[in-house]
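Journal club prep — side note

Before the paper discussion, L.F. wants everyone to see what a predicted structure for a comparable chain looks like in token form. Sequence:
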Amino acid sequence: MRKYYQYFGLALIMIFSFYYTEKIALIVLNKNPLMQSIEEQKGSYEEDYVNAVIDGDYIIPGINGLAVNTRESFYEMQEMDAFNHYYLVFDQVKPEISLEDNKDKIIHKGNTKLKQVSLILANKSSISEYLQAKEYKANLLVDKSSYEKNSYFEVINNEVEAFSSLENTLNLNKENKRICVIHEKNYNICLKNKNYLVEPTLTLTSNNYIDVKNNLESGSIILIDSNAILSDVKLLLKEIKYKNYDVVYLSELISEENSL
């Protein structure tokens, strides 16, 4: 029993020793001129988070805030011993109202502050061939029969009967972004699996280009229907470029990660 108390006492001494050593090191670090410079200037580079916007069953994702990690920033600048904002290290700050806490809501557009749009292909066609040749990012709806490993496009599970089987395949191939483009046949299973629920903002068909063009805005999620024509897609891409929007994968559009 005596040895037990001795070991226990030694353990306590070691714990307090580490604690006070850390406290002393922190005091010394905070008095360093470089650290003080980081503390003084960090506010100019930090960003507040943007809350997600919820409207009934629908949600527009938020954007993480950015907080300077002063200690890691100090270590990055330590060698040059001078403040340089290019070497600041940031921590992501989750919004108070976040998509991650509201995955039962339906995403119908991305955050408009990011000036991005996403394209979803209903199937492979001359349109998908064109987008790949021009290196446009896009998403492709797939089922068990149409899925191909290592596709150029970011794939979305559009299977109904074999939804779970395709999910497992996507997981094994590290291609699962856990996104569903919802319709009445897959809504419940997507909700149960806690996938991101997405409803396109716009759908481009063979005869509604003008309507899509007039309603195109930052954050738009555009489904390119199976009967859409390549010439209209080319015109739409020109309009997207004219409005200075970036075409990104859907996983990027709905992500709340602040890309700095």
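L.F.'s comment for the group: Residues 157 and 163 are 7 Å apart (CA to CA). Keep this in mind when we get to the figures.
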